[in-house]
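Query protein
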Amino acid sequence: MPKITQLLFDCDNTLVLSEELAFEACAELSNEMLEKHNVADRYTGPDLMTTFVGQNFRGVVTGLQQRHGFKLSDSEVDEYVSRELGKVIETLEAKAEPCVGVMPVLEELDKSKKYGMAVVSSSALSRVQASVKKVGQEKFFPKDHIFSAATSLPVPTTKPDPAIYLHACKVIGKSPGECVAVEDSRSGTLSAVRAGIPTVGYVGSYGGVIKQKEMAEVLKEAGAKVMMDDWSQFMDCMAQIEAA
C-alpha cells in the first residue's frame, strides 16, 4: 500500500455542523416545487436530510422528481439551485459551527505537516467556502484544495459519483491510494470508496448512540475501512489504515 500523504475531508457534518441548517433552508424551496407540480407531499428539513443526506441540492431536486413523478426543465433546475444556494449561505454565515472536537485535530495536523489537507464536498464551492470561513477552518486548506462536485467539475454532479474525488486527486497530484477520505454519509463514503480511496466513517454528528450505531453499519456496508464517533479517535483511525 502506498504511503498516506493526503487527507480529503467531506465538509457538511464532518468538518462543519451544516447539514441541518442547509436542509432547513432548502425545505421551503422543495415544498414550493412540489406544490407547483401538484404533488401533495411536503418535507421538513429533517425529512429531506434523512432521505438525501450527503447529496447537494441538484441531487435533491433530481431525487424529488424521481420519487414524485414530475419533470423540471434544465433552466428550472438551475433557478432552484441558485435560489437554494443563496438561502443556505445566508443561514450558514449566521449560524454554522465546527463539528465537535474537530478543531484541535485540524490544529495538530496542520502543525505536524505530515499530511496535505483538502476539502471534497458535494455542495457548491461558495457554500463550502462560507462554511469553513465562518468556523475558522479556512487557514487549514489552500484555496485551490477545496473541491465541489456541484462547481469544480465540467459537468456538475453529486456524491456517490466518484468524479469529485478523482478530480481532487488529479489536481493535488496524488493517487487515490496515497489519500484517506473522511465521510459521514453513505453517498459520500461510496463516492470515496468507488474512487479507490481508503475511508474513515465519521458518525459523531448523528444525534444519539442508537443513530450513530445504525449509521456506522451503513458506512461499513458502503466500504468505510474504520469508524469513529469522536474526532479524538482520528489519529488511531489513521494508524489502523496505515498499518493495514
